[in-house]
Write a structure and sequence with these properties.
This is Peptide-binding protein. This protein is mostly beta strands and 801 residues long. Helix content is 11%, strand content 33%. The protein has 3 domains: 159 residues, no CATH class; 323 residues, no CATH class; 94 residues, PDZ domain (Pdz3 Domain).
Length: 801
C-alpha cells in the first residue's frame, strides 16, 4: 500500500478543487451537464428548471435516478436555491445514482446562497402561561422531542445543576445530582438522563432513567459509551429532562404523555416571535453502497446541515481496545463509497456526529467545511471489525499467542483508505458526548489530515484509535484548547493496542522479545505527524499512548503540553519545538527502537519507569544547563547541547530561530510558522488563534518581577526580610502575594503569604522552577504543592481547570 503523493494524485486533487469551485465545469470539454433546481417554495411536480424549480431535494434526486436508469451518462448538477429545507426522512443515495470520474454528480447550494437542510420540524405553537415564569403549548401529533432549537442555538433541557457557560465539564455538575433528597421531588423521572464523566475522566457516559425502585432510588440503563467501563464519576455529573428541574431561563421540557412543551423564556425574549424547531432525524444524507457495488463520484457542496437528534444512547459499538465506543451515523454518512465527499459546507446545531466515513470507502474528501456546536465528533473515518485479524475489543481482552493470525495487514477491504480531511474549521464539538474528536481515525489506512483548525474540544483534536493500518499523514494542522473537559489525553492522541498487544506488561515484554515481527502486523505503514502546531493545557500536546507504534514525528511546534511516548515501538521524533515543556517517555520496552533527537526542549526529560532508552535519546537542544544535567543522570544525552534558540518573536508565536542561533549550527532546521490551519479566506476569517504563553521556562526574572499563576500573584523569594517573615531557613521558593476570592488558588486553600517549596515532589526554588514542575506534572489534572505557612509545611492539592 504505497500512498506517497505522485503527479497523478496531485492532478486528481487539483481537479477536485477546481470542480468544487465550478472552474472545472467551465474549462472542461467533458460530458454535458444536466442541471436541476430546487427551491423551498417550488413544487415536486414542476420541471426542475430555475424558473420552475422542484420543491424538495428528494424530487430532484428521483429525477436524476430516472435519467440514469434510462442510460444517461452525462453529469448531473442539483442546485438548491436559498432557503431552509425540512427533510422528513434521510436522503439515501445508492450505487445506481453514482457519478463517474468524468461526470460527477453534485448536490450544491447556489453560488452565494444560504441553504439549510434541517433534520427538524418547525413547531406550530400556541403559547399559554403555565405559571409566572413558564409557558406551555400543546403539540398535537408530536410524539417526542429530543432536541429543541430556536434563535440560532440549541436550547437547554431542564437540568440540575443549571448550565453555566464556561464551567467544565458539562456546563456545570453536582455531586448531589442523584441525592435521595432531590430524587424524592421528581414525580415521574422516566425518560430523564444522567450524564457523568468516567471515573478516570476518560470521556463521558450517559444513562436513561427508567423509573424508581421500591426504595425510591432511580433505576437506569446505559454507561456503554466508554470502552473502558467504570462507575460514573462521584461528583462530575448532572441530570436532565426532568420536569421539576425546569427552573432557569432558556430551559425546556416536553411531556410525552400530554404532548405538552414547556419553556422558561430568557429575559426579553418574545417567544411568540421565535421559530421553534424540534429535532426529528439523526441523519440527513447517506451515501450507501458496498465494496462490490460502491457509490461513486457524488459530491455535496456549500450546504448547511442542522437540527439532528442526539444519538448518545446509541453510542455503544466497541472499537478495537481503544477507549472509544461509536455510533455509525452522522448528519452525512458515507458507507461503501469511492471518490465521494463533502466540500465547503457547514455543520452546526447537531445532536450527534457531523460526517461519518464508515466501513469500505476509498478517496473520500471532507474539505473546506465549518463544523461547530455539535453533540458528537466532527469527522470520523472508522472501518469494520470484520477487516481485523485476531480482533480484541476491550482493553483487558487478548487473543492467545498460539491462536494469533500472523498475516500482516487487514483481512478485508472493509475500511476507509486514502481519504482526506482538509481545510476544515472545527470548534465547539462534543457538546453532549465527551469521548469525541475533531478528526477520529480507527481501522483505516492512508488518511490525510491537513490544514485543519481545531479548537475548543472536550478531548483530543485529532485521535487515532489503533495502529491498523497506518500510513496516515497528519500535517499543517492548528489544534488548541483541547482536553477541556476530560483528562490524561492530548491535543493529538493515539493508542496502539493492536493484535500483538497484551494488557499484562510482563507478557508484552515476552511477546516483543520472542516475536518482534508481530509489532507491525497491524501498523504496517508509518504514520507521519509533521508541520503542525499543537497546544494542550490539560495533558500533552502530542500523546502516543499504550503501544502506539511506527510513527515519524517532526517539524511540529508544541505550545504547552510537551510530547509523550508510552510503550510502543519504532517512533522517530526529531526537529520539534516543545515550548515551556519537554519530553515525557513512559514505560518503554527493551527493544522499542525509539529515537528522540534534535528537538528543542525546555524542561528535563520526565521519564516514568524507564529502564531501556531505545535506539537514541541524544543530541537534543536544552535552554537550561540544569535541565540537561538532570537528564544526564539517566545515562542519556551525552551529546545534548545547551544554548539560546534566539526565537524571532516568541511572544507573538514566531519560534523561528534567528540566523546564527546555536541550535541551527548544531543541526536544527527552522520550521515554517505560516502554514498552520485552514487556508481559505472564508474559514481563516472565522478561526481563532492559540494562546501564546510567555517564555518563562528557561528565562530569568528580574528582582521584584511578579507573575500571574492560576489567579494569584507570585514572585520569587528574594530578600532576607521575606525569608524572616516566612520563617524559612533559606531564601527559596515562590512567594504568594495576592489571592483573589474565587480564584483556583483560593479554592484550593492557598493564602497570601504562603511560600510554595515543591510541586509533585519537585523542588520549586523560584517561580521558573514552579512553572517547570507544573509543565511536567499537569497532565495528572492536579498538582500537589508543599506550602510553607506559619513556619510549618502543609500539603495542598490544586485541581487544574
Amino acid at each position: 500500500m504505497n500512498r506517497h503523493i505522485n503527479f497523478t494524485d496531485a492532478i486528481t486533487w487539483l481537479r477536485h478543487v477546481l470542480l468544487g469551485c465550478g472552474v472545472w465545469a467551465l474549462a472542461s470539454c467533458g460530458p454535458d451537464v444536466t442541471t436541476y433546481y430546487v427551491a423551498p417554495m417550488g413544487a415536486d411536480s414542476a420541471a426542475g428548471t430555475k424558473d420552475r424549480p422542484f420543491g424538495s431535494l428528494a424530487a430532484a434526486k428521483r429525477m436524476v435516478t430516472e435519467k440514469k436508469a434510462a442510460g444517461s451518462t452525462g453529469r448531473f448538477d442539483v442546485v438548491l436555491l436559498p432557503g431552509t429545507y425540512f427533510v422528513s426522512e434521510p436522503l439515501i443515495f445508492g450505487p445506481a445514482e453514482s457519478g463517474t470520474t468524468d461526470a460527477p454528480y453534485t448536490i450544491r447550494a447556489e453560488a452565494g446562497g444560504d441553504v439549510v437542510l434541517s433534520a427538524g420540524v418547525p413547531l406550530q405553537v400556541d403559547w399559554q402561561q403555565h405559571d409566572g415564569r413558564i409557558w406551555k403549548t400543546h403539540l398535537a401529533g408530536v410524539d417526542s422531542i429530543e432536541g429543541l432549537y430556536a434563535g440560532g442555538k440549541a436550547l437547554t433541557r431542564a437540568r440540575y445543576p443549571n448550565a453555566v457557560e464556561g464551567v467544565y465539564p458539562f456546563g456545570g455538575f453536582a455531586a448531589d445530582a442523584l441525592a435521595p433528597a432531590r430524587i424524592v421531588r421528581w414525580t415521574n423521572p422516566v425518560g430523564g438522563y444522567i450524564h457523568a464523566m468516567h471515573s478516570g475522566r476518560w470521556g463521558g457516559m450517559h444513562y436513561r432513567i427508567t423509573g424508581k425502585d421500591a426504595g425510591g432510588m432511580l433505576t437506569y440503563e446505559g454507561g456503554w459509551q466508554n470502552n473502558r467501563p467504570s462507575a460514573m464519576h462521584g461528583t462530575q455529573r448532572f441530570v436532565e429532562n426532568i420536569f421539576e428541574e425546569l427552573d432557569a431561563p432558556g430551559e425546556w421540557y416536553f411531556d410525552r404523555m400530554e404532548r405538552m412543551l414547556y419553556y422558561f423564556p430568557e429575559e426579553d425574549q418574545e417567544i411568540e416571535r421565535m421559530d421553534f424547531i424540534a429535532a426529528q432525524l439523526e441523519s440527513i444524507i447517506q451515501l450507501k453502497g458496498s465494496e462490490d457495488h460502491p457509490v461513486t463520484d457524488i459530491y455535496i457542496e456549500g450546504i448547511t446541515f442542522q437540527h439532528t437528534v442526539p444519538t448518545f444512547m446509541k453510542t455503544r459499538e466497541q472499537l478495537m481496545r481503544s477507549d472509544w465506543s461509536i455510533y455509525r451515523s452522522g448528519a452525512v454518512l458515507l458507507d461503501g463509497t469511492e471518490r465521494c465527499g463533502v466540500r465547503n459546507s457547514t455543520f452546526s446545531l447537531l445532536g450527534g456526529n457531523a460526517v461519518f466515513v464508515s466501513n469500505y470507502n476509498r478517496q473520500s474528501e471532507i474539505s473546506g467545511n465549518l463544523i461547530e456546536y455539535i453533540g458528537g465528533s466532527a469527522i470520523a473515518f472508522v472501518g469494520s471489525a470484520d477487516a481485523v485479524r485476531s480482533p480484541s475489543f476491550r482493553y483487558e481482552e487478548f487473543v492467545p499467542a498460539g491462536e494469533l493470525d500472523t498475516i500482516p495487514g487487514p483481512k478485508s477491504n472493509a475500511y476507509p483508505a486514502d481519504g482526506v480531511a482538509e481545510n476544515n474549521l472545527i470548534r465547539y464539538i462534543g457538546m453532549i458526548e465527551k469521548q469525541v474528536a475533531g478528526v477520529q481515525i480507527q481501522l483505516a489506512a492512508g488518511i490525510g489530515v491537513r490544514h485543519n483548525t481545531i479548537y475548543h474540544v472536550p478531548r483530543s483534536g485529532i485521535n487515532i484509535g489503533d495502529g491498523a493500518w497506518g500510513g496516515h499523514v497528519i500535517e499543517y494542522n492548528d489544534v488548541f484548547q483541547t482536553v477541556l473537559e476530560t483528562g490524561d489525553h492530548g491535543a493529538f492522541n493515539s493508542w496502539g493496542r493492536d493484535r500483538f498487544w497484551h494488557p499484562n506488561r510482563a507478557v508484552m515484554d515476552s511477546l516483543a522479545k520472542v516475536h518482534p515481527n508481530w509489532i507491525l502486523l497491524d501498523a504496517v505503514e508509518t504514520t507521519i505527524i509533521r508541520n503542525n502546531r499543537f497546544r494542550c493545557d490539560h495533558g500533552w500536546d502530542i500523546d502516543l499512548d499504550d503501544g502506539s507504534s511506527n510513527y515519524a514525528i517532526y517539524n511540529n511546534v508544541c505550545l504547552a503540553g510537551g510530547l509523550k511516548l508510552r510503550e510502543g515501538f519504532y517512533r522517530k521524533v526529531y526537529n520539534n519545538i516543545l515550548v515551556n515543556n519537554g519530553f515525557h517517555p513512559h514505560v518503554w520496552f527493551e527493544s522499542s527502537h525509539d529515537v528522540f533527537t534534535r528537538n528543542i526542549v525546555m524542561t528535563a526529560h520526565q521519564q516514568i519507569q524507564i529502564k531501556h532508552w531505545g535506539d537514541t535519546v541524544d543530541h537534543n537542544f536544552f535552554v537550561d544547563s540544569a535541565d540537561l544535567e538532570v537528564t544526564r543522570k539517566y545515562g542519556i544525552e551525552r551529546n545534548g547541547v545547551v544554548g539560546d534558540p534566539r526565537f524571532v518573536i516568541a511572544s507573538a508565536g514566531d519560534f523561528t530561530l534567528r540566523e546564527g542561533a546555536d541550535f541551527l549550527k548544531d543541526g536544527f532546521v527552522n520550521i515554517s510558522m505560516d502554514d498552520f490551519g485552514v487556508v481559505t479566506e472564508r474559514l481563516k476569517a472565522m478561526a481563532d488563534m492559540p494562546e501564546i504563553t510567555p517564555l518563562t521556562v528557561g528565562g530569568n526574572f528580574a528582582i521584584g518581577d511578579v507573575v500571574q499563576w492560576h489567579g494569584g500573584t507570585l514572585k520569587n523569594m528574594e530578600t532576607l526580610g521575606e525569608q524572616s517573615a516566612a520563617g524559612l531557613s533559606e531564601i527559596r521558593g515562590a512567594l504568594v502575594l495576592e489571592i483573589p476570592d474565587g480564584s483556583p488558588l483560593a479554592r484550593a486553600g492557598i493564602r497570601a503569604g504562603d511560600v510554595i517549596l515543591s510541586c509533585d515532589e519537585t523542588a520549586t526554588d523560584d517561580v521558573i522552577a514552579l512553572r517547570k514542575a507544573e509543565a511536567s506534572h499537569k497532565w495528572k489534572g492536579r498538582l500537589v504543592l508543599d506550602v510553607w505557612r506559619n513556619q510549618q509545611l502543609t500539603q495542598i492539592e490544586l485541581r487544574l481547570e
